Amino acid sequence: MITILILGFLFGAILQYANLNKYDVISGLALLENFAVVKTIALAIGIGAILLNIEISLGLASYHIKPFILGGIILGGLLFGIGMAVLGYCPGTLAISVGEGSVDAFIGILGGLMGGVFYTLILPYISPLLGPDFGAVSLNSLTGTNILFFILLIIIGILFILASFRLHKIDLNKDRRWILSGIALAVLNVFVFSSFLENRPIGASTSFPYVGDLIFNLTDNDYFNKIQTPGNWELIFLSGAFLAGLIISLIKKDFKITLLHQNWIKYRGASNSKRIFWSFTGGFILIIGARMAGGCTSGHILSGGMQMAISSMVFAVFVFIGLLVTGNLFLKKHL
Q1: How far is CA 303 from CA 41, 137, 204, 249, in A?
Q2: CA–CA separation, 165 and 147 (whole Å)
Q3: How do residues 5-22 score in pLDDT, each as one tens digit?
Q4: pLDDT tens digits, residue range 101-119?
Q5: Mean pLDDT value across residues 250-268
Q6: Is 44:183 a contact under the CB 8 Å cutoff?
Q7: What are the structural domain ranges in the chain?
Q8: Nearest Cα to 303, choosing from 165, 179, 197, 199?
C-alpha cells in the first residue's frame, strides 16, 4: 500500500509540475488553445514505448494490453471526450486538483462515482453494443518480437517525440515544463510495469465504479468481481495523487478553494450553479465513457500507447474527436 501511495504521489507531482491537472489547461486543449497535455502524452508515449518494449523483451515486465472491443472503444472514446470537455479534467487529474482545492473537481468525482454505479447497472443490457472483441491487438502481436518489430517501434517512437516538439512550435503556451513531465511519466510507467514492482500499468478510472459499487452495495455481480483488484489499486494510487496535490500546493502556498476557473468564466459565465451542474454531469459522462472503453487517459492512451496497443490508439482518436467537437459547441457556443 505504501509503495502504491508513493507511486501515486509521484504521478500527481509530475502532472502538477507542468500544470497538466488544471481546468484551464485541459479545457484549453478542447479549444485548441493549449497543447500541454497532448504534447506531454505524445512525448511520454514516444520515449516510454521504446523503454517499455525493451524492458518486456528482456523479461522484466509483461504486456497488459486492453482488448480492442470495437463498439466500446468508439462509443466510450466519444463519451470520454465529451465528458472531458464538459468537466475539464481526466479521472487521474481530478484527485490532484481536489488536493489543490478545486471544488468543481470534487463535484466531478461525485458525478464519476454515480457514473460508475450507473455503468454497473446497465452493463448487462448494453454488452451487445460494446462488441465485437478483436482481442489484445498490438504492434508486437502483429509482427512478433523480431528485428522488424524493433525497427517499427523505434520509428513510431521517434515520430511521437517529433510530433510533441512540432506541437510545441505551434502552441501559444511556450512553457517547457511539459518536457520533463513527459520524460518522467514514461519512466514512472516503465517502473510500474516492471515485474519486480507492480506488474501493471498506471490507471485511474476503474476506482470510480469500484468505490461507487461499494457505497451502494452492488458487489454481488461479475463486473465488480472483475474490477475489485484493479479498482482497489487505483483508489490507493489516486489517494497518493491527492496527497501530492494537497502537500505541494500547501508548500507552494497556492492552495485555494475554487469553483470557477478562468476559462469557465470566460466562456460559460460566473454562475456557480451552472458549474456545479456541469461538473457533476461531465464526471458522470466521463466515467461511463472510460468504463465502456476499458480505460482512460492514463490507463488507456498513455499506458496502452506505450505498449503500441491498437485499442488505445483508436480510443485516443475518438476521445480527441469528442473533446474538440464538444469544446467548440459547449464552450464557444454556450450550449
Answers
A1: 10, 14, 11, 27
A2: 28
A3: 999 999 999 999 999 999
A4: 999 999 999 999 999 999 9
A5: 96
A6: yes
A7: 2-332
A8: 199
